[in-house]
Amino acid sequence: MRRLSLLLLSLCACQARTPATRRPPVEPPPATTAPAATSRAFTRLGGPLRPAWFVCDGTNQPRLVVVERSAEGREVTLTVLDKTPGAAPVRHTYDLGEPDAGMQQRFYPLLRNGREAAALRSLDPRALPDPSRSWIPPFLGVRLAEGPDLACRFMEGVRLLGFDGRRSVLVTQDVQGRLTYRSFDFADAGRVEDTPVEGYGHTTAPASQTVEGGTEARTLDGASSTFTFQNEGYRYVLRVGERASLEVWKGASSVQRTDLLAWTSAPPPT
What we know:
Radius of gyration: 20 Å
Number of strands: 22
Largest sheet: 11 strands, antiparallel
Mean pLDDT: 88
Shape: globular
Distance between the termini: 47 Å
């Protein structure tokens, strides 16, 4: 007991001497919070296909951030892409500091030379109206080194969130199991409004395209899904797994096909 007391006093003294410095954690923080632990994220933005931590589709700024984390969990890379034609991705790498738990939220400081230079903000899913429907990592915001905080598109029931070179795409599933596809064209980014969603979430309104009542086909191993939506003679097909794409058909003809640059997806609820 005496040794434990001395250890605690020593730790307190160290913290008092260095209040502004946060060391990277000995153990990496959890990637997600259940039930989002079954979600997967990938990116090929600015490099080869690789796993990601999550995708932040900005709702208060025309900007996207793909967040990656090293295998040991100590290093975080933010790849930032503006929603403007011809924009080039910019990568920033940081050390991951010790997470700070706040009121129903958690803050992850990102360190450079031992000082906080950016941060990630996530939500405790228990703060949602229905915590069991938090299917992707519940990150609400990213603070970059410059500019205001970026609010991330997030809501309950997300099955797919990603983007290609022209638009963001979102597939949600309601409590009755009905699927809805929404797209958000980058060209409209300056004309839409950041819109709060119940339970601390955010999106933008209006969507460039909304199609309700889709279907889903899963591969036998459950590794991939194909979402199909019909609207006014057009068929929107989103394929997602370790690759992801959007294809638009009119009748028997494919009129457009794009590969997603980054995405987060979640399997159907059990």
